[in-house]
Design a protein that fits this description.
The chain is of the alpha/beta class and 604 residues long. It is built from 25 helices and 21 strands. The strands form 5 sheets. It has a 6-stranded parallel sheet, sandwiched between helices. Strand 5, helix 12 and strand 6 form a beta-alpha-beta unit. Helix 4 runs antiparallel to helix 5, helix 9 packs across helix 11 and helix 10 packs across helix 11. The longest helix is centred in the middle third of the chain and has 23 residues.
């Protein structure tokens, strides 16, 4: 086949600028048509992208348009879903004149990259996700039918479960009872609560009443770990036969699963995620309960609402003080402000006995007193700042806990988790990338030494992972989700490929990976973001002034509430003070749109 002129030209330009990625003919044609769009994930330098675009004959307006797109990308990385046009002008004033800004914005709109609404600039895809959420909630509200028809039945069942043995032998608080009534009386509702305020008990009650009403109830969460925790609260359904391996596509299965599985996610031929549940093929459910909803982003929320059948109910449950989604937006908070919402605030008796939760609530309230180093039954704070001192203390604690786990559970039981704010290495030397090899040498020393001895005997470079390592997959691909964790079961040399392959046991599957796969990380230490949705018996939290840009009240609160029975915090006092003083602020217009379009239907 003879290359067309655009393909040849794109190949020549890429070669001239040293871009060596393997690109198909179709890919070269796409690069010729839209170089910024196709190359911005490959070429990191904006100046190089500009020069490639000009070499391919793109106009000044095209270049200006994508400078604006990159600026809005930066806005989204800060968590905001849009930016006021006047602020975008200020952000780009150093690189774009007034005329260049105007021509670039006009071109970006023609290219369907940016959208201007009420003097706010959005990525077109983000705007569409916000509007889809509003549209689908409107649909569910309008199709729900008369409210209150089932209120007497719900009241009778609620009275019955108040003293039910399945409710742990204590009745519901008035707030919890209000939450139950809200869920069954509305198509869309929000239940929030701080740690220890009884969200789990409320979910149990909601599920019990739904079962007695003959409802098909789907329990879901954004991550596999969070879904597993919910699943452990309930007996497995008959469809799963106790396996707990719900795939979400089986309409007879009511075990908790990830939202992706509930939507029957798959990968298409191009490697992109697709969802087989949608308006034309909705989820089979009367009630959907979504836990850990603070982690939900705009895109997944929009997809979930789109897949709900007519007449269904959905309740979003979460802790508003935890970290928001990694992607832009604050869906849970926006919905809580505009839809039927109950906030649980009464701390349960069991939680009041926990020093971990007492500290978490001081963090949440922003009133943490400095100058003290609390040492309590299940919580201790050691105000270390020197990197060497912190690493030494991490080593000591992990050795101590590893010994306790071996005494109690054998060598396989490692019931602790090290958390820190940063993944990427920095001058502080305390990222997960820095800590994981050190922890591997401590926690998994025997297996590491055995593997390195085998590799040395064969004159091969050892694999970075060895049998017994805890690992995490960090991409949505091949049936795995970003954040899925497992344990390495074996590492083998593949002669034909000249590499190590790693076998990993995940909760529901056994997988092989290339040992050099950049999407497979050691997980003895994980970031606080990656820990969200999990809980661990013991948590070791490491913070350093070098993490300053990442510190926030939400991050500290999320980290602290991951610990069930023991928390040790290694952090300088100024780090903790910085967390408490800094809240995550995000600008969105979802709440404004919900208030204008949807709230009147719920609160008329």
């Amino acid at each position: 086949m003879t290359d067309s002129d655009p393909v040849r030209r794109a190949r020549d330009v890429l070669a001239r600028f040293g871009v060596r990625s393997k690109v198909t003919v179709a890919g070269l044609r796409a690069i010729y048509e839209a170089p910024f769009k196709e190359l911005k994930g490959i070429v990191k330098s904006t100046d190089t992208l500009v020069n490639i675009s000009r070499a391919l004959g793109k106009s000044d307006a095209y270049v200006h348009a994508y400078r604006l797109v990159l600026a809005v990308d930066d806005v989204e990385r800060d968590g905001h879903t849009c930016v006021a046009m006047v602020d975008l002008r200020k952000r780009t004033s150093g690189i774009l004149s007034v005329a260049a800004f105007d021509s670039g914005l006009a071109m970006a709109q023609r290219l369907d990259e940016l959208l201007l609404e009420d003097d706010f600039v959005y990525k077109t895809s983000t705007w569409a996700q916000e509007r889809s959420i509003v549209k689908e909630i409107l649909r569910l509200a309008r199709d729900f039918g008369p409210r209150g028809l089932e209120r007497p039945k719900v009241a009778r069942l609620l009275d019955a479960v108040h003293t039910d043995a399945t409710m742990d032998d204590f009745g519901l608080t008035p707030q919890q009872s209000d939450a139950v009534r809200m869920v069954f009386g509305n198509p869309v509702s929000v239940l929030t609560g701080f740690a220890g305020t009884g969200k789990t008990t409320t979910v149990k009650c909601i599920k019990t009443i739904a079962d007695r009403m003959g409802y098909v109830t789907r329990l879901a969460a954004p991550t596999g770990a969070a879904a597993k925790r919910i699943r452990e609260l309930f007996d497995p359904c008959a469809a799963c036969s106790g396996s707990g391996s719900s795939n979400g596509a089986d309409t007879s299965c009511t075990c908790a699963c990830t939202v992706h599985k509930l939507l029957d996610a798959a990968v298409d031929k191009s490697g992109r995620f697709m969802f087989r549940r949608h308006r034309g093929n909705p989820i089979s459910a009367h009630l959907v309960v979504v836990d850990e909803s603070s982690m939900l982003d705009l895109a997944l929320t929009a997809r979930l609402l789109l897949a709900l059948p007519v007449g269904a109910r959905i309740v979003f449950i979460g802790d508003p003080c935890q970290l928001p989604s990694v992607m832009a937006g604050k869906v849970l908070k926006d919905m809580a402000a505009c839809l039927p919402h109950v906030a649980l605030t009464q701390v349960m008796r069991q939680a009041r006995d926990s020093d971990i939760l007492a500290f978490a609530h001081r963090v949440r309230a922003g009133g943490l007193a400095t100058g003290g180093t609390p040492v309590a039954r299940d919580f201790s704070w050691e105000p270390l700042e020197d990197v060497g001192d912190i690493i030494q203390r991490v080593h000591e604690l992990v050795e101590e806990w590893r010994g306790e786990d071996e005494d109690e559970d054998g060598s396989e039981g490692c019931s602790f988790q090290v958390l820190c704010p940063a993944r990427r290495p920095g001058a502080h030397g305390l990222s997960t990338t820095d800590l994981n090899p050190l922890l591997q040498r401590t926690v998994n020393r025997a297996n590491r030494e055995a593997h390195h001895k085998t590799a040395a005997a064969a004159k091969r470079k050892p694999c970075r992972m060895v049998p017994g390592d805890r690992v995490m997959y960090t991409k949505n691909a091949d049936g795995l989700l970003n954040g899925d964790t497992g344990h390495v079961t074996q590492v083998v040399w593949v002669p034909g490929k000249g590499r190590w392959d790693v076998e990993v046991q995940y909760e529901a599957s056994l997988r092989w990976h290339d040992g050099a796969d950049v999407n497979l990380d050691l997980a003895w230490a994980v970031t606080v973001h990656k820990s969200q949705g999990n809980q661990y018996d013991r948590v070791l939290l490491v913070m350093h002034p070098g993490h300053a840009r990442l510190l926030s009240r939400e991050l500290l609160y999320t980290a602290v509430t991951r610990a069930k029975s023991r928390l040790v915090m290694l952090a300088a006092e100024r780090c903790v003070s910085a967390c408490v003083a800094t809240g995550v602020e995000r600008f969105t217009r979802l709440g404004e749109s919900l208030h204008a379009c949807v709230s009147p239907l719920f609160f008329e």
